[in-house]
Amino acid sequence: MIVAKQVADWITFARFGIGVFLVFLGITRGAEALPLVIWLMLADWVGDFLDGNLARCSRVQYKSWIGEHDLHVDMSVATGLLLYFISSRILSPWRGWLYLVLWGVLFLWLGIPSSLGMLYQAPVYGYLLWISLSWYPALGWWLVAYLGTVIVITWPKFPKQVVPGFLYGFREIRLSRTKKLE
Questions:
Q1: Residues in the chain with pLDDT < 70?
Q2: 70, 121 Cβ separation under 8 angstroms
Q3: What are phi and psi of 48, to 5 degrees?
Q4: Which of 59, 92, 123, 181 has its CA 20 to 30 A from that of 52?
C-alpha cells in the first residue's frame, strides 16, 4: 500500500528531474523557453510545498534517502535554473559562473547547512521573479501570487519558526566555525 511519505518522495524525485530539464531547455531552446521554465518553476515550488507537508502527515513515518536530501534537491533545482539562465544568455555567463564558484567554495569550507542552502537559492529565485515580471508579467504575477498564498497559508509558522530557524542556522554556522578554529 502506498503511503503519503512515498508520494512525497516521488514528488521530490520529480522535482530533481525538473532541475535537470531546465539545463536541457537552456541548451536546446534558450531564452524562448522562458515561459515554460516559469511554469516548471511554479510546478517545482508547488511540489516543494506539497512534498514536505505530505511527508509530515503520512501515517507511516520513516526516514528515506530522498527525504533526507530534500535541501539538496531544492539546491539542484536552483542550480538547474541558474544554468538555464547562463546557457540561454539571460544572465551573463561570467556572473553566473562566478556565483556558482563562490558558493561552491563556501560550501566546501562550511558544508551545506540549511540556512546557507536557502540563502544560495534566494538570489536565483529572486532573479526568476524579476525576469518573469519584466519579460512575461502575467506569468510573473502567477509566481508572486503563489508565493503570497504560501506565506498566508503558513503565516503563523513563517514568522515564528521559519525566519528564526533561518537566522538561528547562521548562528550555528558561526559557532561551529569558531570551535573549529580554537
A1: 1, 170, 174-182
A2: no
A3: -65, -40
A4: 123
Q: What is the pLDDT of residue 178?
A: 60
Grid coordinates given for 102: 563562490
Q: What is the pLDDT of residues 3-30, one digit of tens each?
A: 888 899 999 999 999 999 999 999 999 9
- What's the CA angle centered on 18, arms 49 and 94, to 5 degrees? 110
Rounded distance between C-alpha atoms, residue 35 and residue 130, angstroms: 13
Taking the C-alpha atoms of 64, 150, 121 and 13 in order, what is their torsion angle to the nearest 10 degrees?
30
> In sequence order, which residues have a C-beta less than 8 Å from that of residue 106 and are 6 or more positions away?
116
Q: Delineate the domains of the chain, giving CATH numbers in brackets.
A: 4-181 (1.20.120)
Angle 99-23-147 from CA coordinates, rounded to 5°: 70
Alpha carbon of 162 to those of 1, 55, 76, 113, 156: distances in Å?
Answer: 33, 18, 21, 14, 10
Amino acid at 177: R
- State the pTM of this model: 0.89
